[in-house]
Amino acid sequence: MFESISEASAADLLTQVMAFRTRWQEFEKPDDVNALIEIFPRVTLREGYVLDYVQEKTKEGVLLPIQPFAHPSDDDTWLPMIDPDAQLDREDLVEQFYRTYSSSPVRTGCLSTPFS
Fold first, then answer.
1. Would you say 70 and 52 are in contact if contact means Cβ atoms under 8 Å apart?
2. How far, CA to CA in Å, does 86 sit from each of 57, 65, 82, 95, 111?
3. Which of 61, 64, 82, 114 is deepest in the core (most CB within 10 A)?
4. How does the average pLDDT of the chain come out, rounded?
C-alpha cells in the first residue's frame, strides 16, 4: 500500500512543506488546507470539490481538533452535521476522515465526498 519515493523527492516535499509552514497564516480558511493538499501530488479531491473544515472551541476556549469535510467548490454554505457533545479523540477523527473520504467511485485513491 505504501510506495517508496526517492530521497530527492522526499527532500523536495520537505522543502515545500516547510515553505508552507512559514506562510500558512497568509491563507484564509479553507484555502489553507487546499494549498497544503496541492503539495502532495498523490492526494486529490474529486473534481469540483474543495476540502474544508470546522474547528470548534470548548466553553473554556480550548480549540478542538479540526473536523474535515469536502463540499462543492461553488457552495461554501454546506456544513457537516456535528454533535457538539461528542468527545472524539485523535484516532476517532482519523478513522472518521478515512471512512468518509477514502473511497471514490470516480477514481480510486481520491478523497471522496459525502455527496457520492
1. yes
2. 13, 12, 8, 15, 24
3. 64
4. 75
Residues 2 and 15 in one domain: yes
Please give the average per-residue pLDDT across 7-22, as a whole number.
92
Query: What are the two backbone dihedrals, phi and then psi, of residue 73, each rounded to the nearest 5 degrees?
Result: -65, -20
Cell of 69: 469535510
User: Which tens digit of pLDDT belongs to each residue from 28-71?
Assistant: 888 888 898 889 877 878 888 888 888 888 888 888 888 888 88
| Residue-number span of the structural domain to which 14 is assigned | 1-41
Q: What is the pTM of this model?
A: 0.57
C-beta separation of 65 from 88 below 8 A: yes
The residue among 45, 24, 49 whose CA lies nearest residue 35 is 24
Residues in the chain: 116
If asked whether residues 57 and 69 sit together in one domain, one would say yes
